[in-house]
Amino acid sequence: MEDIEPPELATQLGEQLVAEILQNASVDAVKSLVEAGAPVWYQSGAEGTSPLHAAAYVRSLELVKYLIDKGAVWNAVDFMQNTAGDIALSFNDAEIYTAVRDAGIRTELLLGLLSSRDDSSLDHSTNLILRASDDTAAGSSEDFLSSKLRYTKDESGQDLCFIEVDGEDIGVMMGWEMPIMKETVHSIYDSLPERDNIRVLNVGFGLGIIDRLFQALPTPPALHVIIEPHPDVLRYMKDNDWHQKPGVRVLEGRWQDLVEKEDFLALGGFDVIYTDTFSENYRDLHQFFEHLPDLLSGSNARFSFFHGLGATNPLFYDVYTRISELHLAEIGLDVQWSDVDVRPPKYEERWARSREYFTLPTYRLPLAYLHTLP
């Protein structure tokens, strides 16, 4: 028999593996194919179906667990942008969905741990990238801070803050987020045991939606610190007199360069901390988490953040909801989650010309506080 080159053999075995699973081959037959060299990471040329997708289609929990143990890629998407977890959801198959989701949590936690050790030999290619690998201003903090921002309104009167990347408008912040911000401030304020003379820290101004809401509280904050690094945003803030508002202190720069400085720490603890930054990934947010015990005023203080992590896919969003909760628990913060319906009445009016960065019907709102011992 004519020898087959290794890439061609991998393709042949991969196609066979996907086809056999879809045809309800026995678990033993699938295992034999894998042991013969069929790659569990393979995706079919016709539809991008992986063995894990196929196992979810035939609803075989045993196969799903086996393939995950053998290294199947939990976050692989087919040509319709569906993961194996999405397929399980479509069948209301909670067991398979949970198996795929938990594999994602384990993988991301492990990769996060290894990357924190600065292991340059680590291959991050299978890591879930919240913003797809992007060297533009949308994916790089350095490029973002040197880019030009544009404040405008769309045809429906929605406030917009845009950055242009390769001829495409990308929303830095958009007016449709107002219900999320209102519910966030409402949840924070209602949960505070003491509501007078509160001290607020917000990281990332954007359109200033949440800062306006903080200022509109029945008793405005006694101290309202806003950290903002982008020169165009700072110019917008000055044009709108934010630097002159009573109790407001605008700190110009990146939070990474400010939060450990003595003059910042001298401000004392904050009763409310919120963060919503652009062009930063989950690793940056996780690093911010680690500063919270030194920044919060105590167990009565509250923390929240804009949870747009993986918000174009329900599986990714769920994985990062769980991961952020676990990381906050590591530093002593408990999290309560509430759901905000963000389905738009008219889809076209929400995004104007912007790239879509939140496509799910429900926003998960985090409200965190320092754990108190019984």
TrEMBL record:
- Keywords, A to Z? ANK repeat, Methyltransferase, S-adenosyl-L-methionine, Transferase
Start and end of every RMT2 domain?
135-374
Fetch the Gene3D superfamilies from UniProt: Ankyrin repeat-containing domain, Vaccinia Virus protein VP39
Task: Look up keyword Transferase and say if it applies.
Answer: yes
* Placement of ANK repeats on the sequence: 47-79
**PROSITE patterns annotated for this entry?**
ANK_REP_REGION, ANK_REPEAT, SAM_RMT2
Q: Name one GO cellular component term.
A: cytoplasm
Q: What biological-process GO terms show up in the record? A: methylation
- Keyword Translocase listed? The answer is no
Q: Name one GO molecular function term.
A: protein arginine N5-methyltransferase activity
Query: What Pfam families does the annotation carry?
Result: Ank_2
Q: Which domain of life is it from?
A: Eukaryota
InterPro entries in the record: Ankyrin_rpt (IPR002110), Ankyrin_rpt-contain_sf (IPR036770), RMT2/GAMT_Mtase (IPR051038), RMT2_dom (IPR026480), SAM-dependent_MTases_sf (IPR029063)
User: Which SUPFAM superfamilies does UniProt cross-reference here?
Assistant: Ankyrin repeat, S-adenosyl-L-methionine-dependent methyltransferases
Which protein is depicted?
Answer: RMT2 domain-containing protein
* Organism field: Agaricus bisporus var. burnettii
- Read off the lineage from the record: Eukaryota, Fungi, Dikarya, Basidiomycota, Agaricomycotina
